[in-house]
Fold these 2 entries.
Entry 1:
Amino acid sequence: MKAIIFSSANKPILPGTKGNVAQLNLNEIDKLKRSSITELECFDVLESAENDDILQDLMSKLRTGGVLKLKGTDARQVCKVFERGHIGETELTKLLVRNKLRAVSVADILEKVSTNKEMSILFAGVSGTGYLVEVKRN
């Protein structure tokens, strides 16, 4: 089963999805059973979840061979762009504060995933101020 989790009502536009795909809001993560998901795609979930252990919770939903795709705003990149004068305070606030509870960076995610021996990093990258990290359950 594939699941897509959105942090708010502002969902990105998605192409038509086929098959067994669940589209959930952030507050519906508990509906997913442990070790049941083959692909879990999350938009701004790490930044917006009240649960400090949200990354561990998401990884626990993956079955063996399952992939977790995390997409969000890299706080370190936003700060670099701000420091260089490419964005002002309004854009900084929009990127880091609006509808978010915490700042997240790719480095933070990689550090947390590396402590879980059942997981491996497939991809980690930053484009502009956005990050994409893909994690696989071994």
Note: The mean pLDDT is 90.
Entry 2:
Amino acid sequence: MTDIIKIKHLPQFFPNFWSDEYNVYGISFVEEISIGFVERVNGGYSYLSKDDFSNLHISPTQLLDITINNLDNEFENCDIKVYKLKGGSVAFWHSETDNFSAVRILSPKYLSILKNIFKGYFYFSITLHNTLFESY
């Protein structure tokens, strides 16, 4: 079963409440966000359920490592824009074809890109679409 995971799943952030509401398996990342695991299904993505994870017989750390490796191998183009501002810089990952730009922060490969740009500490922000809609 682990071989299927190596081929199909990628890491993806999701709002914590999905874990209970939709039975999505995730690893806690920050207060309101978890790391889930998705696979392509019928032109979209499907999150790994809690039940499916328990049937894998793999640790959360192993699953995360495998899926980060999959992410590094999945997309060659990571469109990053850097803007110099008074007092610092701001970088944005953006791609119309890559739904995984935010979760790249977990990848040592892409983390090193940011460290090279900022030469020190930096802040990382994740915008949740659900939060935007709920704020209106």
Note: The mean pLDDT is 80.
